[in-house]
Amino acid sequence: MALLEIRNVNAGYGKGPDILKGLSLEVEAGTSYCIIGPNGAGKSTLLKVISGLLPPRSGEVVFRDVPFNGARPDQVLASGICFVPQDQAVFPEMSVKENLTIGAYLEKDRSVIKERMERVFDLFPILAERASQDGGTMSGGQQQMLALGRALMIDPAVMMLDEPSLGLAPQIAQQIFSTIRELEALGITIVMVEQNAVRGLELADWGVVLDLGIVRFEGPADTILDDPRIRELYLGKAVGSGGTT
Ligand SMILES: Nc1ncnc2c1ncn2[C@@H]1O[C@H](COP(=O)(O)OP(=O)(O)OP(=O)(O)O)[C@@H](O)[C@H]1O
Ligand SMILES: [Mg+2]
Asked: Given the CA of residue 38, which atom of ligand 1 is nearest to it?
C-alpha cells in the first residue's frame, strides 16, 4: 500500500477547464519524488489539491488508506502532510523563533516543541544565530530555510516543496538541496516540484513528468534523467549546459 495515493483526480479553478485531467500517482513512504514538466502543466495545482487548498472535482486523495474527501488544509497538515508553497511565506514581522513556534501550533507539549526547534537549528545553524531577527529582514535563502524549518515543526511524514530553489543564487540553492537530502535521511517523504529539473532529478529517487494535467512518464529519477526523449522534450537546455542553472 502506498503512503499517499492520488486517484484519477480532476481539478481546476472556478468555472475554468480541468487543469488536472484524471491524474493518478502513488507516493511510497521513504521515497523522494521530483515532479517536473513545462510551465502550466499543473504541478503546483497537484500540490494544492493534495494539501487541501483546491478540492478535486472528481477522484480522490488517499493518505494511509484513508480518503481525504475534501479535507481542509489544516486537517491535511494535522495528518502529517505539509506544503511549502512557492512564495516562501514566512511571517515578516515575527522573529525566526516565533515563525518556528507557529509552525508547531498543533503541538501543545513544550518539551516536544523545544526538541523540534533544536532539530531545525541543527539543520539550519543560521536560524539559531538569527533566532530573534524578524523573518522579513532575512535574505531570500534564509527565508526559504525558515519556511522549511517551520514546516518541519509539525514533524511531517510528507513534505511537499514547490520550487524550493526558485530565485536563489546557485550556492544557496545548493544548500537548500543538501538540506532536502538530510530531510530524506530523517525519514521524511519528499514530494518536490523543481524548475531546475536536472538538479531535482539528481536529488530524488523517483522522477515524475507532468504534462497537460496528467503523468506522462514516471520512473527511477536517473532513468528519467537519461531518457533521450525526456531530455529533449522536458529537460531542454539544462542538460546541454551541464544542468547547473
Ligand atoms: N488560482 C488560479 N486560478 C485560475 N487558474 C489558475 C490558478 N492557478 C493556476 N491556474 C492555471 O492552471 C494551470 C496550471 O497551473 P500550475 O500553477 O499548476 O502550473 P505549473 O505546472 O505549476 O507551472 P509553473 O511551472 O509555471 O509553476 C495554468 O494554466 C494556470 O494559468
Ligand atoms: Mg508551479
From this structure: 25
